[in-house]
User: Fold these one by one.
Assistant:
Number 1:
Amino acid sequence: MRRLDTRDPGFEAGFAALLDMARDTTARVDGAVAEIIARVRAEGDAALLDLTARFDRWQPRDAAALRVTAGEIDAATASIPAALMAALDTAAARIETFHRAQMPADITVPDPAGLTLGMRWGAVDAAGLYVPGGKAAYPSSVLMNAIPARVAGVPRVAMVVPTPDGELNPLVLAAARRAGVTEVWRIGGAQAVAALAWGTASLAPVDKITGPGNAYVAEAKRQVFGRVGIDSIAGPSEVVVLADGAQDPARVAMDLLAQAEHDEAAQSILLTDSPALADAVPAAVEAALATLPRAAIAGESWRRHGAVILVRDWDEGAALTDRLAPEHLQIMTADPAALFARIRHAGAAFLGPWCPEALGDYVAGPNHVLPTGRTARFASGLSVFDFLKRTTWIAAEEAGLRATGPAAVALARAEGLEAHARSIAERIGMG
Ligand SMILES: NC(=O)c1ccc[n+]([C@@H]2O[C@H](COP(=O)([O-])OP(=O)(O)OC[C@H]3O[C@@H](n4cnc5c(N)ncnc54)[C@H](O)[C@@H]3O)[C@@H](O)[C@H]2O)c1
Ligand SMILES: N[C@H](CO)Cc1c[nH]c[nH+]1
Ligand SMILES: [Zn+2]
């Protein structure tokens, strides 16, 4: 854990090291990922069987065993206790409501020159959803990926999830059923991303791959981009908590640990204007760690990547937050909305002491698949827009072509493109 103070002369160097940590999560695995993708392209299902045995410690009998059957999904769903199923339902319904509200409308623009112009939205044909499963199972991520895809109208939704040691998580399967996933595959890591992008004899390729994952998954998505579309790069989790001196150190500590427990590579940062809070939180983190089942992961994450930054004021706090462009931004100050208005870059914001980030992970409604590694400077969280694309259209009658065509003819000739010019000119008798 780093302790930084903006008043210290060495602050910039320490802060730059924090920024580098966020930037560097995938670079170190690019070679290994390229090899995995090349193997899946060359060997298809055989590579999936071999890599699954190697990385997930599970040897599927054959390629057919990589696909979860409808019977397995039925049995898993039936095994979920009613109260847990009700919680899954609450989350699914709230996520669906929020994402339905995102659906954009087609536009038609009447044009005074006599053309009609428009833009139409349409869903991709097939989406591949990556659901992480190496260190923990994420039923909530199934809902967060699949519900926007279905709301957008995607007909084929293929989900991949690793099953370490051959363990299928029943709630992951129940969530897949609840969210309308059409295929579930027991594969993970870069090999799953490669299979979705290039296809194998068993798994048909998709058009768009979405979802979070570890550094291998994030790097694989980066490498298959272009062959398929991807959402943002959502890698190891991050949170920046902005808290003033009125906040309870124990609550702040648990909010930091809620990200740290995801992954040793996760990053949790506290920014505060209170020297007392800056002193109290590290001790509160250590005390809370002792009570957590995933203390080993959370402890390593906190010690390697965690930070407490003491700022002079919230002007400084807002500027540093923009430089971090965090995946999650939790604001617990006297006027959280006013401070949020001064910050431009964050994947998702959580305002006030009654809005811990974990609420958004599960049931609030907005998506929890968010841009990490400072990509919130230019990227956004998963939404229906990731599964939609736009087609613009133009309709012209003769009068419209006569009114607008001569300018096009002039520009086409200026570009030396005579066929362009004549395809218009000959229709309107310009010669
Ligand atoms: N941003 C989000 O919305 C969100 C949501 C949930 C989880 N997460 C993040 O997703 C990540 C999940 O990571 P995970 O590891 O638990 O699951 P994962 O499913 O992303 O990765 C597991 C896979 O990684 C591959 N792998 C592991 N070690 C490898 C190696 N040495 N070489 C090649 N491949 C290897 C294996 O194929 C394995 O199946 C965490 O960082 C968590 O913070 C993010
Ligand atoms: N915080 C994660 C996104 O970074 C999402 C998640 C899933 N389950 C719990 N949390
Ligand atoms: Zn989380």
Number 2:
Amino acid sequence: MRVIVLYASRYGSTKGIAEFIAEKLRQRGVQAEARSVDAAPDPGDYDAVVIGSAVYMGHWMKEAVEFVRRNRTALTGMPVWLFSSGPLELGPEIASIDDPKLEPEEISGFLEAIHPRGHRVFFGALDPGKLGFMHRTLRKLPAARAILPEGDFRDWNNIEAWAESIAHALATQPVAPA
Ligand SMILES: Cc1cc2nc3c(=O)[nH]c(=O)nc-3n(C[C@H](O)[C@H](O)[C@H](O)COP(=O)(O)O)c2cc1C
């Protein structure tokens, strides 16, 4: 059982989540590796794919969106899990991290197009010292500042529980041959 955990990450926190998921899968006997979507691997070389992207201005990163669109046919026929890494805190009208309002724009289309086994949103991280010029400027806007605090909010217990559920699904559900 070979699984690839793909990520699109601007500043590294989503990469960290992907590497953690791959490590947790390996600890449960799954042969898993994390790689950037930029490496453009062929999903057909794997039995299952996990794809995650950082979220900026309500959207997945372009390279992750393009990877899913380009590989739509292959992904539709295999077990796929998606995750988004973004929120740094819950706004006033957001009940929990599972609130559909936190879902990036592309996700509903992906759910229809490739029928993934699941999609999860995880808290992200923000280090102002790493931000590029555009992101630093955007973060200075009053509305953005309130929802983009500095800090590492990644919930490793929650992420581990999700990785465990994937390992469990792979162990108990038949995977169609590629
Ligand atoms: C300018 C800017 C805009 C952001 N917009 C969103 C957003 O719309 N939704 C969200 O959930 N997170 C948003 N975030 C938070 C990032 O998704 C979060 O910091 C994430 O962990 C970054 O991942 P990376 O380090 O892998 O690039 C934004 C962050 C910045 C700096």
